[in-house]
TrEMBL record:
Keywords: Cytoplasm, Developmental protein, Nucleus, Phosphoprotein, Repressor, RNA-mediated gene silencing, Transcription, Transcription regulation, Translation regulation. It comes from the Eukaryota. GO terms for biological process: regulation of DNA-templated transcription; regulation of stem cell population maintenance; regulation of translation; regulatory ncRNA-mediated gene silencing. Residues 374-499 form the NOT2/NOT3/NOT5 C-terminal domain. One of its GO terms (cellular component) is CCR4-NOT core complex. Residues 243-270 are annotated as: Disordered. It comes from Cyprinus carpio carpio. The keyword Calcium does not apply. Component of the CCR4-NOT complex; distinct complexes seem to exist that differ in the participation of probably mutually exclusive catalytic subunits. In the complex interacts directly with CNOT2. Interacts with TIP120B and NANOS2. Interacts with EBF1. Interacts in an RNA-independent manner with BICC1 (via KH domains). This is CCR4-NOT transcription complex subunit 3. Belongs to the CNOT2/3/5 family. InterPro entries: CCR4-NOT_su2/3/5_C_sf (IPR038635), CCR4-NOT_su3/5 (IPR012270), Not2/3/5 (IPR040168), NOT2/3/5_C (IPR007282), Not_N (IPR007207). The keyword 4Fe-4S does not apply. Pfam families: NOT2_3_5_C, Not3.
């Protein structure tokens, strides 16, 4: 009785966390869709992802309780699980919108007409991927429960109910892995266009029924689920489930064992010439590799393609010698051959005794251009579209006001004379302009630092109490753009990975 009360208390606390998490998710969802600029959207998207991760962990706990036989009334648990899954679907929409940028290849492709067959194939691939992930997640839960029950049975031996549960979980893990293998194979075949989408549709309902109801007491599995599909590329050893008491290493040894001859009960013994050639091949191969290494040291980085091609030719010659010698028919021992072989390679293949070949003028020019391009690598922000500031309520101004911007108003000296609040206004409301860049530069000169996670400017109020290579901790002044004012934060940990430290030239 005490155990049931304890379990019910855990369930109530979990459902309370679900309600709070969904409420928090809704609040962040509204803020995301009302965000005014891209920086705020990125912040809210990160918060939304963090919240959905919490809900997913609660969902996993709820699914464990739903599968348990100790709980009779599971309606409330199922309702909360569906509520979390609804939020997960909403988050997927946000994630797709985030990944599909307006001017990306995918974004421009949305304007074109999508092929219905290709769209159906992509949806089926997504379903297969999600189903495999769900099965893997359930396998992890089963293994965790088996480990927990095994510890309990070791402490209290003779508990038949827990032992039966362990056996049932092991059976489920085995069946789950079998279905994961089948679905991964179907996914590869679909990607290679060797199976039709319609054929997968026939097993879709049965697979979903297995995932949802495989733990029910009255569940009956369809043993012929995949028989209608043409899965000829799967070996018979993989089609069958692994027998009890055999691990994966033993199965691998059985499947990869060397086949024997069909005409004799014992293998054909290798001839002495074969052994000699194998030793000669290995010696020659090692010699070639050592010479290639010395060549690479001499050539440095001037001719990497020639060295690679030279090494391939040496390896192909050695393999050809071995294949010609090899199960040739065995015969009388031949006369011993000299152990040293002479190989003639033209200078163009890398074995150049006079040193590296000098580069031509065109090659030197290309090398100089590559080095210059490397020093000016583009930044991800270079691809962002510059946004022009448009006044929401334009109105004519009297002629005695300034009709033109002040002289030198686009210089850093002009911005350094502005007040701090004015600089914050320019930074947050003139996004993507030169004014925003100059305001950020002026704020940095006033010892303000931008936090890329919170999208806010921070300034030390005093010397940090703790400074490490990864963070510093102390009292800071920060500008809250939502409530538009400066605030003080004590005991704040400023992680350097969130510090925007680009040198603004």
């Amino acid at each position: 009785m005490a155990d049931k009360r304890k379990l019910q208390g855990e369930i109530d606390r979990c459902l309370k966390k679900v309600a709070e998490g969904v409420e928090q998710f809704e609040d962040i969802w509204k803020k995301l869709h009302n965000a005014a600029n891209a920086n705020q959207k990125e912040k809210y998207e990160a918060d939304l992802k963090k919240e959905i991760k919490k809900l997913q962990r609660l969902r996993d706990q709820i699914k464990t309780w739903v599968a348990s036989n100790e709980i009779k009334d599971k309606r409330q648990l199922v309702e909360n699980r569906k509520l979390i899954e609804t939020q997960m679907e909403r988050f997927k929409v946000v994630e797709r919108e985030t990944k599909t940028k307006a001017y990306s290849k995918e974004g421009l492709g949305l304007a074109l007409k999508v092929d219905p067959a290709q769209k159906e194939k992509e949806e089926m691939e997504q379903w297969l991927t999600n189903t495999i992930d769900t099965l893997n997640m359930q396998v992890d839960q089963f293994e965790s429960e088996v480990e927990s029950l095994s510890v309990q049975t070791r402490k209290k031996k003779g508990d038949k109910e827990k032992q039966d549960r362990i056996e049932e979980l092991k059976r489920l893990i085995e069946r789950h892995r079998y279905h994961i293998l089948m679905l991964e194979t179907i996914l590869r075949m679909l990607d290679n266009d060797s199976i039709q989408v319609d054929a997968i549709h026939k097993i879709k309902d049965d697979v979903e029924y297995y995932i949802d109801s495989s733990q029910d007491p009255d569940f009956e599995e369809n043993e012929f689920l995949y028989d209608d599909l043409d899965l000829e590329e799967i070996p018979a050893t993989l089609m069958a489930t692994s027998p009890q008491g055999h691990n994966e290493d033993e199965m691998f040894l059985h499947s990869s064992s060397t086949p024997t001859s069909t005409t004799s009960s014992s293998p054909i013994p290798p001839s002495p010439a074969t052994g000699t050639m194998v030793i000669r091949f290995l010696s020659f191969f090692l010699w070639s590799q050592s010479n290639l290494q010395s060549i690479s040291i001499v050539y440095n980085h001037s001719e990497p393609q020639i060295m690679l091609f030279s090494g391939l030719l040496l390896t192909i010659d050695c393999l050809t010698m071995l294949c010609v010698t090899l199960y040739s028919p065995p015969g009388p021992a031949t006369a011993p051959q000299p152990a040293v072989s002479e190989v003639n390679l033209p200078p163009s293949l890398g074995a150049c005794p006079l040193g590296p070949t000098p580069l031509s003028k065109e090659q030197l020019y290309q090398q100089a251009m590559e080095e210059a391009a490397w020093t000016h690598m583009p930044h991800p922000s270079d691809s962002e579209r510059i946004r022009q500031y448009l006044m929401r309520n334009p109105c004519p101004t009297p002629p005695f006001h300034h009709q033109m911007p002040p002289h030198h108003s686009d210089s850093i000296e002009f911005y350094q004379r502005l007040s701090t609040e004015t600089l914050f206004f320019i930074f947050y409301y003139l996004e993507g302009t030169k004014a925003q860049y100059l305001s950020a530069k002026a704020l940095k000169k006033q010892s303000w630092r931008f936090h890329t996670k919170y999208m806010m400017w921070f300034q030390r109020h005093e010397e940090p109490k703790t400074i490490t290579d990864e963070f510093e901790q102390g009292t800071y002044i920060y500008f809250d753009y939502e409530k538009w004012g400066q605030r003080k934060k004590e005991g704040f940990t400023f992680e350097y990975r969130y510090l925007e430290d680009r040198d603004l030239q």
